């Protein structure tokens, strides 16, 4: 967790670092800070200036307004607390004598290093694992008198995950960065260079990026960047041009990023499909995967791992894989998979699903699948993220940056790509006829237009949210492919509206949860007109008989459901496998409007962060 930024160049550094930090706030907002080196005219008097505070970047901005900084080199940090509670004392940057650092990740051997340094007389100011880095490096520099050599020695002593940016007051134009397990990239400018945890943070300043791999570090000066491995061997890195516009990373007039991202979904699906369906709906192509049909045919099972919303995408895919591709499929919570001693199963295709590509549990589950010699494939939205480096075979969701902590468009894009993978397997296994595949792909291609129709009902969703805004507990029910959508809708309401939700397969209600039904628990029913609709309808009747209030999402023109519901939201008629794309949109909008009505910080819900890079 946490976001880091650095700048060396010829402009005032603090406004640049501050604006880049704002774009990283989704990575954590427990505290924020910035450190620069003061320059008096042409003189460099070797003094650090540090401003840090508990809370968000807005508070850091206020601090900088009252205590401005000057200077052309700075590093900054926005924190999601791991070791040490959120406070000014635990906020980065951390300084020890002539060294100041910002860190994202966890130093696993920090206790041993701390003890070692305490024995040598060091005293620590914070409870963080990160502070030891400043102490260790300053000590090494004092021993050797050499900044770069000491950085190389220091980096070898650190165990765990880190993305680091470091300044030494005696060499103010030389910023040291290193990466192991946490994201970090470099931005190239004219007479200035940048560092940040992700691409959108720097898009305002550059489109030219150098992506660091694990085990790489760099010394960054205004007019040169030297990348090397941890032993100090220079590495020639190619600059990559990233053509995301800054506008793509901004709100475009919506009140919140989440709402913007919900409305982007039709476009995102078109981008996801672009170039992937052969004209005439004959085939699916992934240009990033070079497996031949025999390879796709060789799999006898699919094992998916993911967390949270991405796990829900996996649950839906299990239905598709089994019904469409006729292949055994499992989906695990990544945090469970690695500890449940999965048995080696030959010819397994292991699919890791992660928007950020940085989720610690998912990465660990990928490592576990690797040990089982599974063939690995990842679905991610983040170019050059850690998952990409672990899995070689990658399908990018092409959803553009997702800023809101609650995932919406990336979930939908994951579903689209997982549907395409299902088709690829179905074709290789000859599980469906050519005509069936062509029709399915055609229907998949038109789903973005159907989403546009659902989005037109936003006013109705807002009215329903107003009506139910004061209820503090909700049931979400679904069956079959709509059950994971009930789980996903319930998660959204929980995480951004802070409302207690219980999601069940509707068939399970009679086994216990129905005891809770009363007129105090509105029941959100995901009930498209599919094979299981008659069963779902009986479950709804049982809830109604116990005074439950029914908000239902069903197929347009379906009077039986509409008449049985207190409130009804219609989706266009669509083939049963694809209803999740549509029913979910209503649940996203419902959670969004409930959160707004309750005055919550929609894009940055409390206690959460966008990338969960800790276990
Ligand atoms: C919920 C949400 C989270 C993420 C989960 C996995 O709205 O966004 O549940 O889905 O933390 O994140 P990624 O997909 O980045 O691995």
Please provide a written account of the structure:
The chain has three domains: 3-248, Aminohydrolase, N-terminal nucleophile (Ntn) domain (Glutamine Phosphoribosylpyrophosphate, subunit 1, domain 1, 4-Layer Sandwich), CATH 3.60.20; 251-445, Rossmann fold; 457-615, Glucose-6-phosphate isomerase like protein, domain 1 (Rossmann fold), CATH 3.40.50.10490. It is 36% helix and 24% strand. The chain has 20 helices and 24 strands. Helix 9 packs parallel to helix 13 (409-428) and helix 16 (458-468) packs across helix 20. The longest helix has 20 residues, at 409-428. The site of fructose -6-phosphate (F6R) has 14 residues, from helix 9 and helix 17. The site of fructose -6-phosphate has 14 residues, from helix 9 and helix 17.
Give the SSE layout.
Elements (H helix, E strand, L loop, with lengths): L2 E6 L4 H11 L7 E10 L2 E12 L2 H10 L6 E7 L14 E3 L2 E9 L2 H10 L11 H14 L2 H11 L2 E9 L6 E6 L4 E4 L4 E4 L11 E4 L4 E6 L2 E6 L10 E2 L15 H7 L1 H9 L19 H6 L2 E6 L1 H16 L4 E6 H4 L10 E7 L5 H12 L3 E6 L5 H6 L2 E3 L12 H20 L5 H12 L1 H9 L2 H11 L4 E6 L4 H15 L2 E6 L16 E6 L5 H13 L3 E7 L3 H6 L2 E5 L7 H19 L18
Bound molecules: fructose -6-phosphate (F6R).
Fructose -6-phosphate binds next to α9 and α17.
Number of helices: 20
The quaternary state of the protein chains shown equals: single chain
Task: Count every beta strand, where a strand is a DSSP E run of 2 or more residues.
Answer: 24
Number of domains: 3
CATH level-3 fold name of the largest domain:
Glutamine Phosphoribosylpyrophosphate, subunit 1, domain 1
- Strand share of the residues? 15-25%
Shape: globular
Residues in helix, %: 25-40%
**Main beta sheet:** 8 strands, antiparallel
- Look at the helices and sheets and give the structural class: alpha/beta
CATH class of the largest domain: Alpha Beta
CATH architecture of the largest domain: 4-Layer Sandwich
């Amino acid at each position: 967790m946490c976001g880091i930024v650095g700048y060396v160049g010829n402009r005032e550094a603090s406004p640049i670092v501050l604006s880049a930090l704002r774009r990283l706030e989704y990575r954590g907002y427990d505290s924020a800070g910035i450190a620069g080196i003061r320059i008096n005219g042409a003189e460099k008097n070797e003094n650090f200036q540090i401003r840090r505070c508990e809370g968000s970047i807005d508070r850091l901005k206020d601090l900088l307004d009252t205590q401005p900084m000057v200077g052309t080199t700075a590093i900054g940090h926005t924190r999601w607390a791991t070791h040490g509670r959120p406070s000014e004392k635990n906020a980065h940057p951390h300084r020890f004598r002539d060294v100041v650092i910002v860190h994202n990740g966890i130093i696993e051997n920090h206790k041993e290093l701390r003890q070692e340094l305490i024995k040598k007389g060091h005293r620590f100011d914070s409870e963080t694992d990160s502070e030891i880095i400043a102490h260790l490096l300053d000590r090494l520099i004092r021993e050797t008198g050499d900044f770069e050599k000491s950085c190389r020695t220091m980096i070898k002593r650190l165990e765990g995950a880190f993305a680091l940016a470091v300044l030494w007051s005696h060499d103010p134009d030389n910023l040291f960065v290193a990466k192991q397990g946490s994201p970090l990239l470099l931005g190239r400018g004219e007479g200035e260079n940048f560092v940040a945890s992700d691409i959108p943070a720097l898009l305002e300043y550059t489109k030219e990026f150098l992506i660091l791999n694990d085990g790489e570090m760099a010394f960054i000066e205004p007019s040169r960047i030297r990348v090397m491995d941890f032993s100090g061997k220079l590495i020639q890195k190619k600059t990559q041009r990233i053509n995301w516009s800054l506008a793509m990373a901004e709100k475009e007039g919506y009140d919140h990023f989440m709402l913007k991202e919900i409305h982007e979904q039709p476009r995102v699906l078109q981008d996801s499909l672009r170039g992937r369906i052969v004209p005439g709906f004959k085939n699916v192509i992934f240009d990033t995967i070079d497996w031949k049909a025999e390879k796709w045919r060789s799999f006898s099972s699919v094992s998916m791992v993911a967390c949270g919303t991405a796990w829900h995408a996996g649950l839906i895919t299990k239905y598709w894989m089994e019904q469409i591709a006729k292949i055994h499929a499992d989906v695990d919570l990544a945090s469970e998979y690695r500890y449940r001693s999965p048995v080696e199963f030959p010819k397994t295709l292991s699919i890791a699903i992660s928007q950020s590509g940085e989720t610690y549990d998912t990465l660990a589950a990928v490592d576990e699948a690797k040990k089982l010699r599974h063939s690995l494939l990842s679905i991610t939205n983040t170019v050059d993220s850690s998952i990409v480096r672990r899995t070689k075979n990658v399908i990018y969701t092409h959803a553009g940056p997702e800023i809101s902590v609650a995932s919406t468009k990336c979930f939908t894009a994951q579903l689209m790509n997982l549907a395409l993978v299902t088709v690829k397997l179905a074709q290789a296994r000859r599980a469906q006829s050519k005509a069936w595949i062509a029709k399915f792909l055609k229907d998949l291609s038109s789903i973005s237009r159907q989403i546009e129709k659902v989005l037109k009902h936003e006013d109705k969703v807002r009215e329903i949210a107003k009506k139910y805004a004061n209820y503090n507990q909700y049931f979400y029910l679904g069956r079959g492919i709509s059950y994971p959508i009930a789980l996903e809708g319930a998660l959204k309401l929980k995480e951004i509206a802070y409302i207690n939700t219980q999601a069940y397969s509707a068939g399970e209600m009679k086994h216990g949860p129905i005891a809770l039904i009363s007129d105090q628990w509105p029941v959100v029913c995901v009930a498209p007109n599919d094979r299981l609709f008659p069963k779902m309808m009986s479950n709804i009747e049982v809830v109604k008989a116990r005074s439950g209030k029914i908000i239902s999402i069903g197929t347009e023109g379906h009077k039986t459901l509409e008449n049985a519901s207190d409130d009804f939201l219609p989706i266009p008629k669509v083939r049963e496998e694809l209803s999740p794309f549509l029913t979910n949109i209503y649940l996203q909008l419902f959670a969004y409007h409930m959160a707004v009505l309750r005055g919550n910080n929609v894009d940055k819900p409390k206690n959460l962060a966008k990338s969960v890079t800790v276990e």
